[in-house]
Amino acid sequence: MLCFRFCPVPRLELVLLCLVLGAARSCALELNLTNSEKATCLYAKWQMNFTIHYETTNKTYKTATISDHDNVTYNGSICDDDHNVSKIAVQFGSGFSWIVNFTKQEPNYFIDSISFSYNTEDNITFPGAKDKGIVTVHYSEKVSIPLNDIFRCSSLLTYEENHVVQHYWDVLVQAFVQNGTVSRKEFLCTKDKGSTTVAPIIHTTVPSPTTTPTPKEKPQVGNYSVSNGNTTCLLATMGLQLNITQDKIASVININPNSTGFTGSCQPQTAQLRLNSSIIKYLDFVFAVKNENRFYLKEVNASIYLANGSVFSIANNNLSYWDAPLGSSYMCNKEQTLSVSGTFQINTFNLKVQPFNVTEGKYSTAQECSLDDDTILIPIIVGAGLSGLIIVIVIAYLIGRRKSYAGYQTL
Ligand SMILES: *[C@@H]1O[C@H](CO)[C@@H](O)[C@H](O)[C@H]1NC(C)=O
Ligand SMILES: *[C@@H]1O[C@H](CO)[C@@H](O)[C@H](O)[C@H]1NC(C)=O
Ligand SMILES: *[C@@H]1O[C@H](CO)[C@@H](O)[C@H](O)[C@H]1NC(C)=O
Ligand SMILES: *[C@@H]1O[C@H](CO)[C@@H](O)[C@H](O)[C@H]1NC(C)=O
Ligand SMILES: *[C@@H]1O[C@H](CO)[C@@H](O)[C@H](O)[C@H]1NC(C)=O
Ligand SMILES: *[C@@H]1O[C@H](CO)[C@@H](O)[C@H](O)[C@H]1NC(C)=O
Ligand SMILES: *[C@@H]1O[C@H](CO)[C@@H](O)[C@H](O)[C@H]1NC(C)=O
Ligand SMILES: *[C@@H]1O[C@H](CO)[C@@H](O)[C@H](O)[C@H]1NC(C)=O
Ligand SMILES: *[C@@H]1O[C@H](CO)[C@@H](O)[C@H](O)[C@H]1NC(C)=O
Ligand SMILES: *[C@@H]1O[C@H](CO)[C@@H](O)[C@H](O)[C@H]1NC(C)=O
Ligand SMILES: *[C@@H]1O[C@H](CO)[C@@H](O)[C@H](O)[C@H]1NC(C)=O
Ligand SMILES: *[C@@H]1O[C@H](CO)[C@@H](O)[C@H](O)[C@H]1NC(C)=O
């Protein structure tokens, strides 16, 4: 289910996009600010929620959670390139207000400070609150971003300040859009980045400045399933990382299972798993049966919202991955790369999948991928050990012979 709400405000192009994912409802906020020349000057899309602890009249503490943002307006949002300041101001619900300031200092811009206000006079959200009135919490954390990069943070960011816990995730923002074009070059937050030490080496050996290899953390492993009536007919457990290459720039996106919905269908000869989230319009895995006795991944269809607001779509129905006998599951713990097209790869981690013949909602015995199979290493190690031993024996023999020969000579 998808709901779009348009909030037209003079000179501002605003869209609030609400996505209903499975049971958990989460709303992505989106702001596309344009300047007087109607060129985009600030672009942002993000998700947030808040948990507020407040004191009640009878000296107990209560918790209010704010995760749906109703009646959103963006009054006061500005991008002022001349004065090096930009601001996103959001008003929602009954008296909530959220403001983030950005400053520019070439060659970077900064996420400066966040302030969040709520009104405890709203006795529906804050029943029995002791103090009535507007409360504002500030959070300042300077994040420095190269001027022409779009900031991305898919991971969950949590800030706790004065009884308010703020959660942000799936964040995309470019506060000083250059020449009206939202950048495709992503600047990842530290949580999205991997701690791989290889990165600087790659940077220095790759001469092209257009390619930015962005090593990332391994994605979290998600559990997905499809039901036919009330019986589970497809099971999949995997960590997914998407790799989209456009204009020589690879965007690597880890799928967060916590905010990813899944659906699908099962038929005797074909089964489908569809994932979707605020980033993924859809990602379909289609399985087929071959020779009446094996299954395999035949097709991948994907449509992904990119950082610059465009949509990347791809389909390939001529794949042959994850091949295993019917009645069993397919497993691959090592990282595996599915090459869907020259521009789209999916890296899988800790994969286990069974698209057919699932009984009692459980995986059947697994056939493991050859990558996991390290039995081939054993003969190599044994062989290497043996040849080492032979060399030692030969050397010992030669030395021994030499010694005895030398012995004879002295005689
Ligand atoms: C806020 O979002 C995070 C991440 O999706 C989730 O773990 C948390 O339960 C949410 N909290 C509320 C109050 O909805
Ligand atoms: C936002 O601006 C619109 C018109 O510009 C106005 O009708 C609305 O009341 C304002 N909302 C807030 C919360 O200030
Ligand atoms: C949102 O606006 C509608 C109509 O303007 C109003 O009925 C509703 O109470 C508002 N919701 C909140 C949470 O303020
Ligand atoms: C944002 O900047 C304005 C002035 O530029 C300042 O008045 C306001 O307090 C700032 N807000 C935050 C949340 O820092
Ligand atoms: C909320 O406040 C209004 C008036 O301020 C009052 O009529 C109403 O009974 C209050 N509701 C609750 C649940 O306290
Ligand atoms: C305190 O007030 C809350 C509602 O405001 C109520 O649910 C709770 O039972 C009260 N506790 C006591 C000890 O009176
Ligand atoms: C923006 O346009 C100016 C002049 O047209 C150019 O010098 C500059 O490189 C452009 N910046 C970006 C980021 O495209
Ligand atoms: C599952 O569905 C079948 C028929 O649709 C029904 O007879 C059965 O009671 C259901 N089982 C459960 C556990 O709901
Ligand atoms: C992403 O794809 C590009 C181009 O195929 C490749 O060079 C790069 O290593 C891939 N990155 C990851 C993390 O898979
Ligand atoms: C997903 O949720 C689990 C537990 O609910 C939590 O441990 C994990 O950090 C979350 N992952 C992300 C990326 O938010
Ligand atoms: C933002 O609005 C401008 C002007 O309407 C439009 O050209 C641009 O494509 C929009 N960008 C996004 C990311 O929605
Ligand atoms: C798998 O299920 C199909 C029908 O759903 C059945 O015909 C077939 O025998 C099953 N195969 C195995 C190996 O369990």
TrEMBL record:
<keyword id="KW-0325">Glycoprotein</keyword>
<feature type="disulfide bond">
    <location>
        <begin position="153"/>
        <end position="189"/>
    </location>
</feature>
<dbReference type="InterPro" id="IPR018134">
    <property type="entry name" value="LAMP_CS"/>
</dbReference>
<feature type="domain" description="Lysosome-associated membrane glycoprotein 2-like transmembrane">
    <location>
        <begin position="378"/>
        <end position="409"/>
    </location>
</feature>
<keyword id="KW-0812">Transmembrane</keyword>
<dbReference type="InterPro" id="IPR048524">
    <property type="entry name" value="Lamp2-like_TM"/>
</dbReference>
<dbReference type="Pfam" id="PF01299">
    <property type="entry name" value="Lamp2-like_luminal"/>
</dbReference>
<keyword id="KW-0472">Membrane</keyword>
<feature type="region of interest" description="Disordered">
    <location>
        <begin position="203"/>
        <end position="222"/>
    </location>
</feature>
<dbReference type="InterPro" id="IPR048528">
    <property type="entry name" value="Lamp2-like_luminal"/>
</dbReference>
<keyword id="KW-1133">Transmembrane helix</keyword>
<feature type="transmembrane region" description="Helical">
    <location>
        <begin position="376"/>
        <end position="399"/>
    </location>
</feature>
<comment type="subunit">
    <text>Monomer. Forms large homooligomers. Interacts (via its cytoplasmic region) with HSPA8; HSPA8 mediates recruitment of proteins with a KFERQ motif to the surface of the lysosome for chaperone-mediated autophagy. Interacts with HSP90 in the lysosome lumen; this enhances LAMP2 stability. Interacts with MLLT11. Interacts with ABCB9. Interacts with FURIN. Interacts with CT55; this interaction may be important for LAMP2 protein stability. Interacts with TMEM175; inhibiting the proton channel activity of TMEM175.</text>
</comment>
<comment type="similarity">
    <text>Belongs to the LAMP family.</text>
</comment>
<feature type="domain" description="Lysosome-associated membrane glycoprotein 2-like luminal">
    <location>
        <begin position="219"/>
        <end position="359"/>
    </location>
</feature>
<dbReference type="GO" id="GO:0000421">
    <property type="term" value="C:autophagosome membrane"/>
</dbReference>
<keyword id="KW-0458">Lysosome</keyword>
<keyword id="KW-1003">Cell membrane</keyword>
<feature type="signal peptide">
    <location>
        <begin position="1"/>
        <end position="28"/>
    </location>
</feature>
<keyword id="KW-1015">Disulfide bond</keyword>
<keyword id="KW-0967">Endosome</keyword>
<dbReference type="Pfam" id="PF21222">
    <property type="entry name" value="Lamp2_2nd"/>
</dbReference>
<keyword id="KW-0732">Signal</keyword>
<keyword id="KW-0072">Autophagy</keyword>
<dbReference type="InterPro" id="IPR002000">
    <property type="entry name" value="Lysosome-assoc_membr_glycop"/>
</dbReference>
<keyword id="KW-0968">Cytoplasmic vesicle</keyword>
<dbReference type="GO" id="GO:0031902">
    <property type="term" value="C:late endosome membrane"/>
</dbReference>
<protein>
    <recommendedName>
        <fullName>Lysosome-associated membrane glycoprotein 2</fullName>
    </recommendedName>
</protein>
<dbReference type="GO" id="GO:0061740">
    <property type="term" value="P:protein targeting to lysosome involved in chaperone-mediated autophagy"/>
</dbReference>
<dbReference type="GO" id="GO:0005765">
    <property type="term" value="C:lysosomal membrane"/>
</dbReference>
<dbReference type="GO" id="GO:0005886">
    <property type="term" value="C:plasma membrane"/>
</dbReference>
<feature type="disulfide bond">
    <location>
        <begin position="332"/>
        <end position="369"/>
    </location>
</feature>
<feature type="compositionally biased region" description="Low complexity">
    <location>
        <begin position="204"/>
        <end position="214"/>
    </location>
</feature>
